[in-house]
Amino acid sequence: MIAKQDYFPLLRRRIKEIINFNSDYYEEKHLRRRVAIRMRALDMSSYREYLKLLERSPEERERLMRVLTVNVTEFFRNPETFVVIHREVLPELIRMKEENGSRVLRIWSAGCASGEEPYSLAMLVKENLGSRRDFRVRIMATDIDRDSLEKAKRGEYLEKELLGVAREYIRKYFERRGEVYRIKRELREMVTFERRDLISDRKYGAVDLILCRNVIIYFSRELKEKLFMDFYESLNPRGFLVLGKTENLSGEARKKFKIYNNVERIYRKEVGPPSPHTFPRRY
Ligand SMILES: C[S@@+](CC[C@H](N)C(=O)[O-])C[C@H]1O[C@@H](n2cnc3c(N)ncnc32)[C@H](O)[C@@H]1O
Q: Which residue segments constitute the domains of the chain, with CATH numbers given?
C-alpha cells in the first residue's frame, strides 16, 4: 500500500510564500490547529484540497491570515508608525503637559497581546524623557487572553523575538540571562497589565494616547463604531488614537476625531466644533 502523502509541509511553505506570513516561527501543532479552524469552516478534510483553494482565492488568503495572526505581535510592529509616535506624538504630548502644568502621562495599549507593543512604547517614552524624573508615566496594557498576559508580565523574550529592536535599545532596556532577554525593571514598572475585554469591560479615562492596533478585525461594524466613541470619551482633549495600518475609523467618530497622520492611522481628539472637512470624502 502506498502511504498517503502529507500535504501539510507543502501547505506550510506556500503559506509563507503566498500570504507572506513567516510560518517558520510557529510550532507545527499550532499551525495545524489554525489551519484546521479554516478547514472546518469550509467543511474540508484534506490539506491538498485546502491548498488548492488558497492558491486561487485571495479572500481565503485574507481569512487565513486573520486566523493565523490572532495573537501575533512584535516589538515596533510597523516601525514607521513608531517613528511618528517617537518623533511627533510623544514630544507633542510632553509639550502639552508642560504647557498645562501636568506631569502625568497616561497611555493605553488596548489588545497588547504578549507585551511587545506596550514595552515598545515604554522605550520610546524613556527616550523622549531622557533623564527627566518629573513625569509620572503609566502605560495600561490590556488584553482578553490570559496566556498572552502572563507572558507579557514576565517580560521575557528570545533573541528571535527581538528582531525589530535596535541594538542600542536591547543594551539599554533588556538584561540577558542565558537565552532569555528580560525587560529591565525600570521599564516593567511603567507598564501595568490587566485582563479586560474591550467589548464589555470598563474603559479607562483621562488617557493621552491609545493604541488599538490589529485587534478589532473580527468586530462587527456597530461594535467598532461604539468602541471608537468609547476611545473618544477615554481620551484627554487633543489626545491621540492609533489604529492598525489597515484599519479605518468609522461612524460618528469620523466627525469627532481629526486625522493626524492618514498613512499611519493616527487620529487626534478634536477640541471645539469639528471641521466639516475633517475627513476626505472617500477616506
Ligand atoms: C494581533 S494581536 C495585536 C497585538 C498588538 N496590538 C499589535 O498590533 O501587535 C490582537 C490581540 O487582541 C486581543 N483581543 C481580541 N479580542 C479582544 C477583546 N475583545 N478584548 C481585548 N483584547 C482582545 C487578542 O487576544 C490579541 O492578543
A: 8-68 (no CATH), 79-269 (3.40.50.150)
